[in-house]
Amino acid sequence: MSFRRGRRLGLDIGSVRIGVASCDPDGILASPLAVVRRKDEPAALRELREIVEEYEPIELLAGDPKSLDGAARAAAASALEFARKIAAATGTPVRLVDERFTTVEAHHALAAAGKSSRQRREIVDAQAAVIILQNALEFEHNTGVPAGREMPDEESEQ
């Protein structure tokens, strides 16, 4: 299997904000795109649907929040549930990709770029989405296999 051509969007789904990143159709470079506030979920889903309609990705790559030992955290259930809502609202397949360390990595990259902690807070989610997406692209380029796992059915998560 080789790399599947097509734009993808990366999502860092947090309880307050959702970072969004995009890549070119050849999957070479991931770039920050937006930070969507999650406070009003219907509005957040509308905004995400508009982004998906504009970029027409072949899939969405969402961070799969797990603890360092690989166990799902409480935040994981909420993120997974919202990822299901995004998939339903956009009609776009979602794959879940390991996101351990992405927010820490994003903070380090932004600090190295000279961003203050206040500046970082506003853009760290989009930067974390870039890292999720870039890691997934590199995995698929190197292995020919899509990164992560397909979104499980609700029954199999119980």
UniProtKB/TrEMBL annotation:
It is found in: Cytoplasm. Keywords: Cytoplasm, Hydrolase, Nuclease, Ribosome biogenesis. Its EC number is 3.1.-.-. It holds the Pfam family RuvX. Its main location: cytoplasm. Transmembrane segments: none annotated. InterPro entries: RNaseH-like_sf, YqgF, YqgF/RNaseH-like_dom, YqgF/RNaseH-like_dom_sf. Residues 6-106 form the YqgF/RNase H-like domain. NCBIfam families: RNAse_H_YqgF. Belongs to the YqgF HJR family. HAMAP family: Nuclease_YqgF (MF_00651). Could be a nuclease involved in processing of the 5'-end of pre-16S rRNA. This is Putative pre-16S rRNA nuclease. It comes from Brevibacterium spongiae.
